[in-house]
Amino acid sequence: VKGMKPSEKAPAHNNDAGPRKTGLRWQVLTADGLQHIKEHKYKPGVYTPLDNLLNGTWLRLTELLPLWLAPNLVTFSGFLPMVVSYVLSWWAQPDFASPPPRWLALYCGFSLLLYQTFDAMDGKQARRTNSSSPLGQLFDHGCDCLACLSHHNMALLCLLPGPSRTGLMGLVALQSGFFMAQWQEYFTGVLNTAFGPVGVTETQYGLMAMAFATAMLGPERAADIMGSKVHVPWYSEALPVGHVVCHFWMGFVGVLMMLSLKETLVAAHRLGKLGESISYLLPVVTLNAIALLWPSDLLAKDARMVCFVIGILFFYYTAQMITF
Prior knowledge:
The chain is mainly α. It has helices spanning 31-39, 49-63, 71-92, 102-128, 134-159, 165-188, 200-217, 219-227, 241-270, 274-293, 296-301, 303-323, and strands at residues 20-22, 25-27, 194-195, 198-199, 229-230, 239-240.
C-alpha cells in the first residue's frame, strides 16, 4: 500500500491543539484531536523477511492468550519490563561508562525480546477479539516512542561511550527518526517501519544480540573491546569501537530521515500543506540544536538526566504528532 487518496488524509490540525484549562478541569484533547483519533486508520509499510519469518510464531503465541485480555494490556505488559531495565541500568551504570554486570545485560536482552514479541502480538489480539480501535493503535505508538529511551539505554549499556555527546546524539538520532516516521504517516497515510530488508524488527534483534553478547563476554572483556581504538576515514584521531558503532547508527538513521523528508514534503506539497508540514518539524529541529550545543561540562556531570529530559521532550512532541 503506497498511501491513501488525498480525500482520506487526516484532517488539518487545530493550531491551538493541546492541553487547555476550562473552568476547574484540564482539557487534554481538543475536539479536533478527538476527531483525529476517531478517524485514524493504521496502514503499515511492507514486512521485512524477518517479519515474515516470525509472523507465524507471533500468531501461534497470540492464540494462547485468553480472549478477555485487552490488546492494550498486551502492549503494556511488554512495555513494563523495558521500564524496569531502564531503571536498573540507571542504578548500575549512571555514567554510560561502567561495563554492566552479566545479569543486567542478560535481563535487558530478554526484556527487549518480550517487548518486541508483545508489540507484534497486540494488534493480532485486537483483530482476534474484534476490539481494534484507533485509540489502541495510538496507545501502541506512544509506548513505542517511550521505549526509544530504553532502546538507547540498552545500546549505550553495551557500547560504553561514557558521558559524551556521541551517546546523546545517538538518542537524538533515534527519536528524531521515530518522530519523522509519525510525521510521514500523517501526510502520506502509511507508517513505514523498514528500509528495504532492514526494519524495526531487525534493529531490535540486533540490539538483543549485542546485549546477549555483552552478557556472555562479561564486563571486563566487553569494556576492552568497546574501548579499543580504531582509525576511521571521517575522523583525524582513532576512536573507541563503541563510538564508531554510534557513528554508523547516526549515519544510517540520517539516510532514513533524508528519504522520509523528501517523500513527506512531496506528499504535503501535493495536499497544499507544505508550510504546515515544515512547521511541525521546528520543535524537533530545535531539540537537535539544543543537544548539539549543550555544554560538554554539563553533559559530563549528569549525562543520564540530560538524555532523560531530552528523551521526554521528544516523546511529548511525538505524542502531539500522533494525537493531534
